[in-house]
Write a structure and sequence with these properties.
Layout lengths: L7 H84 L10 E2 L8 E2 L19 H60 L2 E9 L5 E3 L2 E9 L4 E7 L4 E8 L4 E3 L8 E8 L3 E9 H5 L1
């Protein structure tokens, strides 16, 4: 059996053709990539160049505006200086006119006429008179005498005020001594008598309440300031204890030779007071 033979030349050209086409395709691809890269680089260069041109033009415009602003400011300063000069010239007084010297135009004998620089006539200097010394000395003596008299009057007034204060202090001291003696006598009299406390509750109104040897009637009440007023009746005679405060010991006498009584309010309410009345035991027993 004979072997099968292939014609190798049929397959050889195709492989060689494919190998020849592969480098061409790679070259085309590389060329396209190179062109794209070159275009990208050119675009970036163009963009940067346009940006730099825009920045340069902007800087140039800013510099131009700054120059215009500086020129405007200079013009404003010049106008301000000119306005100040004009204002100063207007405010300043007019300079004196130069003296006009009249000349005769005749060539043979020139005649000059000179005007005086000042139109005012020469004034004589006032004579200096020495100040009188005698009136000054008399005025000083008068002022000194007035000051001395005023000092004397002030001293006398001060002395009179001091004497008056001394008199007042003496009177106040005497009154204090009398009050102390009266208080001691009352305390001694109270200590010698035996006492009894009688409690009471008084309502404001016309009603009277008998407490011990007397009858009490509440006249007015001030709960805010804790003050009250009570009328003490003894033998149809009223002894008014007016404007008393809470816990104040009110000592009073109903008869000439009678023992003193003590009234104390322990509560001051809106319409009533609560307290007690201290009376002598001997008087109560009678």
């Amino acid at each position: 059996m004979a072997g099968i033979e292939f014609d190798r030349q049929i397959f050889t050209p195709a492989a060689e053709a494919q190998r020849a086409q592969a480098p061409k395709a790679m070259g085309v691809i590389l060329l396209v990539l190179a062109l794209g890269l070159a275009g990208l680089v050119g675009y970036k260069v163009f963009t940067q160049a346009s940006q730099s041109n825009a920045i340069a033009s902007a800087n140039a415009q800013v510099e131009q505006l700054q120059q215009q602003l500086a020129e405007s400011q200079k013009r404003v300063e010049e106008l301000e200086k000119h306005r100040r000069l004009v204002k100063a010239e207007v405010a300043a007084p007019a300079p004196p006119q130069p003296v006009v010297v009249a000349k005769n135009l005749a060539p043979a004998k020139p005649v000059y006429r000179i005007a005086a620089g000042s139109a005012l006539p020469p004034q004589p200097k006032p004579a200096v008179t020495p100040a009188p010394i005698q009136p000054l000395q008399s005025a000083a003596n008068v002022n000194t005498a007035a000051m001395q008299s005023e000092l004397t009057a002030n001293h006398e007034a001060w002395q009179a005020t001091t004497d008056r204060l001394a008199d007042v202090v003496g009177v106040v001291g005497q009154q204090q001594n009398e009050l102390s003696e009266t208080r001691e006598a009352v305390n001694q009299l109270l200590s010698q008598t035996r006492r009894q406390a009688l409690s009471f509750e008084l309502l404001r109104g016309n009603s009277r309440m008998p407490v011990g040897p007397v009858t009490l009637q509440l006249k007015s009440v001030d709960a805010k300031s804790q003050r009250y007023s009570v009328c003490v009746y003894f033998e149809d005679r009223c002894i008014e204890l007016k404007d008393r405060v809470l816990n104040e010991v009110v000592v009073f006498v109903v008869s000439k030779n009678g023992a003193p009584l003590e009234l104390v309010a322990t509560k001051v309410l809106r319409d009533q007071i609560v307290g007690y009345l201290e009376v002598p035991t001997d008087k109560q027993q009678r």
